[in-house]
């Protein structure tokens, strides 16, 4: 804008300053708009990159009845069921009695002790639900210290028994460990501890 000759000098200077202020404001607005456009493009690029990046695989959820033992010995599927005040874990993997007991200890329990007929049938139901059969299975009884003196590995009293006819057998002190679902009667037998069988662990709730 040009000042006329009739205009006073102070008025002309004021108009010039206004024009400069308007010009500066316009430049600032232009710069702001340009910056916002660049930010918008950047955000779109980031979103596109996120869409193209494969997501990390998430661990599959596990059912309560299908869990994996943390033991270095056994990392296969086990079956868990609650009965009274204990959880019972059926371990499919055949192990020696000592390996089975150590595996149960790594899970915070012991091979299962049995204290009455109802509990025995409850454990049988756990085995049937897991394996669809009444398989011979290690439980926590042994007489490794002295023949005819049976103990549970969890330290509870050995006051209930369910021996099959003719059992237990004492053969030169070798039949030290107890298994359940033995013979056609599905009762208790004793067997040399180095044989491999599935097992049942028990852990207090």
Automatic annotation (TrEMBL):
* The keyword Disulfide bond belongs to this UniProt entry's keyword annotation: yes
SMART domains membership: CLECT (SM00034)
Q: Where is the composition biased (Polar residues)?
A: 1-10
Renumbered to this chain, region (Disordered) spans 1-20
UniProt keyword terms in alphabetical order: Disulfide bond
Q: Which InterPro entries match?
A: C-type_lectin-like (IPR001304), C-type_lectin-like/link_sf (IPR016186), C-type_lectin/snaclec_domain (IPR050111), C-type_lectin_CS (IPR018378), CTDL_fold (IPR016187)
One Pfam family of this chain: Lectin_C
PROSITE patterns on file: C_TYPE_LECTIN_1, C_TYPE_LECTIN_2
Residue ranges occupied by any C-type lectin domain in the UniProt entry: 83-202
What CDD domains has UniProt attached to this entry?
Answer: CLECT
Q: Per its record, how is this protein called by name? A: C-type lectin domain-containing protein
């Amino acid at each position: 804008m040009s000042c006329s000759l009739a205009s006073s000098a102070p008025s002309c200077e004021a108009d010039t300053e206004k024009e400069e202020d308007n010009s500066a404001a316009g430049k600032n607005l232009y710069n702001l708009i340009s910056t916002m456009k660049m930010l918008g493009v950047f955000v779109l690029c980031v979103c596109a990159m996120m869409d193209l990046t494969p997501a990390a695989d998430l661990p599959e959820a596990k059912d309560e009845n299908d869990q994996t033992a943390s033991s270095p010995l056994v990392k296969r599927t086990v079956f868990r069921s609650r009965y009274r005040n204990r959880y019972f874990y059926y371990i499919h993997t055949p192990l020696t009695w000592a390996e089975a007991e150590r595996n149960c200890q790594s899970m915070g329990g012991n091979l299962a002790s049995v204290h009455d007929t109802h509990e025995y049938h409850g454990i049988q139901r756990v085995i049937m639900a897991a394996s669809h059969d009444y398989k011979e299975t290690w439980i926590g009884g042994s007489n490794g210290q002295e023949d005819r003196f049976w103990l549970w590995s969890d330290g509870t009293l050995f006051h209930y028994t369910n021996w099959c006819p003719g059992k237990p057998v004492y053969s030169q002190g070798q039949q030290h460990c107890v298994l359940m679902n033995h013979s056609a009667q599905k009762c208790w037998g004793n067997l040399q501890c180095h044989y491999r069988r599935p097992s049942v662990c028990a852990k207090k709730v």
